Amino acid sequence: MRLTIKAKQVAGVTSIVGLAVVGLSGLYLSSLVRVRLEESLARGELLSSAVYQRARTVVTHGDPDPYAALRADEGLQSILESSVYSSSVTYGAIVDVNGVVVAHSDPLRVGETLPRRGDLAALLKLGLVRQLRAIYSAEGQRLEVGQPLLLDSSAFGSIRIGVSTLLIRSDINSVLGPALIAVAVALVGSSVVAMLLAQLLLRPIHVLRRSLTRLGERDFDVSDALPRDEFGELGESLAVASARLLAVRAGPVAGHDDVEPATSRLALLVAKDLERWRQVPSSLNYARRLAALGRLSAGLAHEIKNPLNATMIRLELLRQQLLPADGDATATGGRGGGASVGGNDASEISDLEEHVNVISAQIRRLDEVVQGFLKFIRPEDIRLQVVALDDILAAIMPIVEAEAHSHGVDVRTELPAGLPDLAADQPMLEQAFLNLAINACQAMSQGGTLRVTAAATWGRYVEVRFEDTGVGIPPSQLDKIFDLYFTTKEGGSGIGLSMVFRAVHLHGGEISVESTPGRGTTFRLLLPQA
What we know:
Blueprint: H1 5-58, H2 66-72, H3 74-82, E1 89-96, E2 101-104, E3 118-119, H4 120-124, H5 128-135, E4 142-151, E5 154-164, H6 165-216, H7 230-250, H8 261-322, H9 346-377, E6 385-387, H10 389-407, E7 409-414, E8 422-424, H11 426-442, E9 448-457, E10 461-468, H12 496-506, E11 510-516, E12 520-528
Parallel strand pairs: 3-4, 7-9
Antiparallel strand pairs: 1-2, 1-5, 4-5, 6-8, 9-10, 10-12, 11-12
């Protein structure tokens, strides 16, 4: 489906705004996640420091049972229980070296073994994607902020503050909600603004289209108002052209003698374009008639070919019946006997044989003409593949070199390194290249040089050249060499170059020829790259 200019403009503006919003949203989300994780880490570290300071006052040097002192201290228990009122913190605990709870925000868990959790500080060092994966996992994760408890420079336990990613997620979602609403409003607003802007900018195009429609209907009054910008200048030129066309249609009018020649040329161009548009339906009808004529010609050629084959067979039977066999002067025809020509002398038989040979040669010539015509007009499926040019040339070189040797021609192939591959039907191109090379060799009956070169060119094409130093082609014949049955060679069919022309154009390429009589001919082919 082809998009209109308006749709493209709306899509472009919306895409630009969308990309900007998505980029800014990503930065905002990244900073928001990091801030919430850092806040949770700071709360955990603060609680851990408070517990640590209280534990130092409770456990003294030389205390025989520090764990009992920690369990018995009410102030320490109050700090641990108050930890759960902090955002994202789920528990606070003191454990011994074996992970057994000595004190906990939930007194019922004293004596249990507290499993080890992930480190919140380590999560902060990861990338945004892994942080989001940890926060937005289905069941969430429990992370910890920890600190060792020291007594006489040796650890006798640790402080562990639990943090839940579910609580962090809830905190982030509460902030993201308004942000997502703002993103949606920005996208909808940008689309609406883009539609209004497109309507405003494209209005002159609709006015010009309406004016051209009226010109096509021979209404030359196209003085529609346009804004004073580039479209306005175009509208003024169109108005001047319509006035000139109206003057031309109405005849000489006073006051129009000072119209500039450029305006007249513009009016003529507009009139010619309108005339071309009017000719489109007739051109389509002509193409349909031409296609029907091609089908009719193909059927007619088949109908001619069948009688030719029957005539050729009968002629051979007649030759076997009438001409003498094994040098005898008398021959009998048919398997059960037949006409006798025993009365014919040797000269009469020789004349009869000559007539039969002439008729046979002309029938064969007519059959070749019909065969060439059928081959040229018959639809052919082209099977495009990625083909290397040197593979095509390597396939035809044995035949070309044999022909070149018989004419004393030196064949040179010059292909640069890194030449792009072709999108080609290899058998079809091999036949086309072979025709060009054989023709070049035959044009150098006294010897010469055939150069085959190639190079990548503009528009993703490969240019292939066949350059010979032969007799050349007269200028009067250059525009006819690709015509079917046109030939200047004795015994030529006039089909080879026509098939080359057809093969190149079936590939979506171009072919041209340059020739100087007495100096040589160059065929230039442009073929699409793969």
